[in-house]
Specification:
The chain has five helices and eight strands. It is of the alpha+beta class and about 180 residues long.
């Protein structure tokens, strides 16, 4: 149903990290292990997988529009068309040392009609979508991932911290209005 149930919270002093980036790998890893042990004790659950949050001055973002032309005999816009326009929007040049983190849909456009919330099922020849693209320096992201995998934990996904926070604190109405 989309709800989250907190079973326990683990805490440890933040050492080996400055402004969200690892500056001392061994020390940071020990702090993660301490927080993990605390969370497992408080929740009485053995944690096997985690979502890793990343942040830092290396994280950048920009807006980009993806576009796909649909054939004349195309019945209606479907989920594959949505995926195709998302892939098209990500086909942009970012620095070679960077990795994509997220592409967040902002708006769809069907044959020039702006503000389409969900184009699935609509007819159209030109599907466009505005996305907010978030990326960061690959090695800095990988250092954070390695810090967790060394424990060993399975990394379920990597999430930009500000985006993760927004998902928790914003109301659905605020999200619908475009707050990220």
């Amino acid at each position: 149903d989309g709800t989250t149930k907190i079973l326990g919270v683990g805490q440890a002093p933040s050492r080996g990290v400055r402004k969200g980036e690892i500056v001392d790998f061994e020390t940071a890893m020990k702090c993660v292990l301490e927080a993990l042990s605390d969370a497992e004790t408080k929740s009485d659950v053995m944690i096997k997988g985690v979502y890793v949050g990343v942040t830092g001055a290396h994280i950048q973002s920009f807006n980009n529009r993806g576009c796909v032309m649909l054939p004349d005999d195309h019945e209606e816009i479907d989920e594959q068309d949505i995926e195709d326009v998302k892939i098209n929007a990500r086909e942009v040049s970012i620095p070679a040392q960077n990795a994509f983190l997220h592409s967040i849909i902002q708006h769809y456009h069907v044959d020039g009609q702006d503000g389409v919330l969900n184009p699935v099922g609509m007819l159209g020849q030109k599907l466009e979508a505005d996305f907010h693209i978030i990326h960061g320096v690959r090695t800095r992201i990988q250092n954070t991932i390695r810090c967790v995998k060394e424990l060993p934990l399975e990394v379920e996904d990597v999430v930009f911290n500000a985006l993760a926070s927004a998902q928790v604190v914003l109301t659905q109405q605020q999200k619908n209005l475009g707050t990220v």
